[in-house]
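Researcher: Checking consistency across runs. Here is Aminotransferase again:
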Amino acid sequence: MSHPESRTSRLLDGIPGSATVGLSDRIAALRSAGRRVVDLASGDPDADTPAPVVDAAVASLRAGRTHYGPSRGTAELRRAVAQALPVGVTRDPDSEVLVTGSAKFALSLALQALLNPGDEVLVLTPAWVSYLPLVRLHGGVPVPVHLDSRDGFRVTAEALTGACTPRTRVLLVNSPTNPTGRVLDAAEVDAVVRVAEEHDLVIVSDEIYRHLVFRGEHRSPAVAAPHRTVVVDGVSKAYAMTGWRLGWLSGPADVVSTALVAHQHMLSCVPLFVQDAAVVALTAGDSYTREMVETYRLRRDLLIDILDGADGLRFTPPEGALYGYLDVGGTGLEAGPFAARLLESTGVAVLPGGPFGAPQDDHVRVSLAVPTADLTTGLQALRTFVTTLPAPTPSGARR
């Protein structure tokens, strides 16, 4: 008799569950057991969804907007998406925009539309924990392009070109970046576009954090290369709407129409009342995001003030997104043991860097999406914890 494992998909062999979801479950279990935990691991904004957005959803529900809607998304929301794209990017809302269930699902649809089995996808690492698994789930081969923390995780044409092969099909980029907080500058975006042009790659640009910039400005490769760029975005981060699960992809009509086929068979459509609420969010300009961005900017400054100069820690100040990415290698501990001991001894939860795909697990991610008082408590406890660790061995061996 065959074992049950033989009935499961080979595509899922060796793919771990989401590290962020797993740690959230662990934190919930500890809290249920009565343990106080300061959660510096979550990427869920601590702000409430703006009241007018909630009111719009309630009004839509009461108006009976609870049935199937257009699979592409309502015309009103697609127009709002097209009008809210980065400056310099123009898309036809009728053929080049697809509204779907979350930015994560939009990314999944983009990969489904672009990849054939064995196609390679360049992924700049460290990278969000779902990029590498999603590529594999759609039959692709993720090719990590490791960025050096000592160079501020800078993207270069040389690194990208060196990773290209005849099977390379897609270049996946994310700016502002989870987990490092980097915002790609003009030279880096130019390098991405130039390599994509030279090797005939499609750029999939995850811009879910594009409104959350503290230093510099967000630049989309779709401005210079609209014919080969698919942009993934959504309302989760900028509008504190993570639980609403609404996102979209915009790009060349052939890619969007192919993604639409998969969308129709897998999801059909996004709830109409959620789309109606998203229209209110997108057409409000920056009136809802401005205060959140300033709050995160102040928390980013707090992170720098508390952790700068701490023995054993090194980090590049985040320029955007919701995270700080700390190099803890100087403590003599790898990230996994560091995070486990920190949680056990102080009740502060951070996310180890291993699931972000870096070759060496020596970083932890801390989130700015927590109340300022909790962030202060957690960061101070982290700094104090570091001072309690024995000095690293002279050889640099890790404990």
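Researcher: Does this match what you'd expect to see?
Model: One thing to look at in this run: The radius of gyration is 21 Å.
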